[in-house]
Amino acid sequence: MEKEAYAASLAAISNINNITNDRIEALTKSHGMTNIAAISAANAIATEVLRGVNIMLTDENIGQLQVNDVLRKGVETAKEAGADGANAALFAATICYFAGSNAQAGVPAGNRKLGGLARMIAGVDRSGVAAIPTPKSNNKVSGFAAVQAIYNELVEGNLTKVDGRQLPLGVAGGPLYGHSHLGEDISYPEISSRGAEIGTKAMMDAQAGAGMSPNGIISAILGVAATLEIVHPDAGLGEEYGESFKFKSANLAGKHAAKVAGLPEKLHIRGTGEEYDTAQLVGDLGVIMKDIGAPSVIGMMSFEEMLSAFEEGVSGFSGGPIMPPLGHITADLVIALRALISNNGDISKSADILRDIKKTQWLEPELAATGTNTIARKVEQVRRGPITEIMITATEGMRANLVHTIAHRSYEGLKSGKSLKEIVSEMDEERKEFVEKSCAQMLGSMTGHELEIKITKLTGGCRRDIPFVKEYYGFDTDADVELVVDGKKINLSGLAQNVIPDAIFNQKQDLLDVLPFATIPISELQLSGHTILYITVPAAVAAAMNLMDPKEAAKQSENAASCTAAIPGAKPKAKEVAELAVRITNDMV
Fold it and tell me: Is the confidence at residue 356, as pLDDT, over 80?
């Protein structure tokens, strides 16, 4: 590689903040997204797990368990990265759970629950499920919907046939109820099952009413959590429900909530294939959530994205195939953690698992890998550890190949007499075509259709005559898409402003069926700001070759990148990268 291309490559990755338009500096020690805090906590917890620390909850008659110290390190690290107490507690508890800890263990004197321990360690007040929001999916609602629905049924006496007003002295509140037929065989199972069903349905209905697509697993978890605020959460149920002393009210609530939410019976971790019983998972996470305090919306978004580690795609989208903004990348935390544990701490084997996922389960593998690499390196500014080591090791080669390819093509093109605008436009158009073909292949395989996808228009300002939105199409996107589905051509003109509202409000099922074929590739490109190497590297090569000054190179490169320049911010970063490339070139002798 010529020194100008080499200098541009080094300059492009020398400062990770210049790799992306996403505001990743705001993700640390700020009120921004919380995934850096979550991954930092995972680094701290995974380090303890590799040391052989016992993270299991037991009902031993001792004041402190080893898991207390692990939770403390997770909470403190998350706080160091900017998370508030409730979010830090949620991350530490959830990560410990995915590392293998149980959610609850205890008798009254030594009752231990993972969420409660994490909350107390974080110094957070108990709040209640009504105060817990759902993750934001354009809008958001709170667990109040589940609490309200369950309490309405409680007041009407519809959750259990046991009327507390009829309980005689010596029965109410004692083991003749709590650990006998009336409680364990009748009242607890009725409240657990009915409460979870009612709470889950209420959460899904509330989300739909807020113009959101109902999130099944989040609804189920909050439905269970609201139920477990009422029913005895440690109660062993009758043998007809499950194994004695092992199948408890939380398990039954999880089973009924998962069914109402339409979740599959089993879930599997991406890459490792490890199987989770969905009812157990929902019940356990409900136990954690009921005690955790009041995490924020962005804390719940990072929690949701951890669940994106399941290959069934039950929640979130940081597990692929669309590349999200860098503040959403959290699924890799769980994937790396489970890979690390299943491979007995082997970083290289664990990295191979994550690398294969990036290569096979994403629309744009190298860009997805680069995004993971960027956020992992940002996390390491807060806390280094085995999780980020896996993420970086898994993606470094793919990132290097992407940078090398762009730099080499830019250098050869400029050397042959092409303009910078021609080179950037050409690569960006090829990228769009790659997304179209990747989406057609993936969605065709999923649905059984023969697909062709062509984005014929992608600009900004479909509704607003504002220079800003016209220049950056990521806002107020005006898109036209041409589909060929099993040989039938379908033209979707004005996707956002015409087609989608028409399909929804007029219940046009034929349009609703094909819309994902158009919306998914558009979404992939709208979020292009996560990685701007297609802008920064060519600009740096042009400046390093002394064909134009860095400012002009940055301007031309951003203007030519019709896909990658979806949101503002690339121009000043390209200028900075180009200036560094010139400096590096001048120092190479």
Answer: yes
Written as six digits, the tokens of 421 are 């605008």
Give pLDDT tens digits for 395-418: 999 999 999 999 999 999 999 999
DSSP conformation class of 135: P
Three-state DSSP class for residue 299: helix
On whether the CB atoms of residues 114 and 287 are closer than 8 A, the answer is: yes
* 3-state DSSP of 350-390: HHHHHHHHHHHCCCCHHHHHHHHHHHHHHHCCCCCCHHHHH
- Quote the CA–CA distance of 553 and 11 in Å, as a whole number: 14
Those residues whose C-beta lies under 8 Å from the C-beta of residue 409, and which sit 6 or more positions away, are: 423, 427
Enter the tokens of residue 53.
């620390």
Structure tokens at 529: 């700001």
Helix (H, G, I), strand (E, B) or coil at 212: coil
Q: 10 Å Cβ neighbour count for 374?
A: 25
CB–CB of 556/539 below 8 Å?
yes
Q: CB-based contacts of 221: which residues, under 8 Å, 6+ apart? A: 257, 282, 285, 286, 289
- φ, ψ for residue 354 (rounded to 5)? -65, -40
Mean pLDDT of the region 102-112: 80
pLDDT of 153-192, one tens digit each?
999 999 999 999 999 999 998 888 988 899 999 999 999 9
Spatial distance between the Cα atoms of 463 and 145, rounded to a whole number of angstroms: 35
Tell me, what amino acid is at 572? P
d(C-alpha 472, C-alpha 475), whole Å: 6
Q: Where are the alpha helices (DSSP H) in 123-163?
A: 144-155
Q: What is the pLDDT of residues 142-155, one digit of tens each?
A: 999 999 999 999 99
- pLDDT tens-digit readout, 254-281: 999 999 999 999 999 999 999 999 999 9
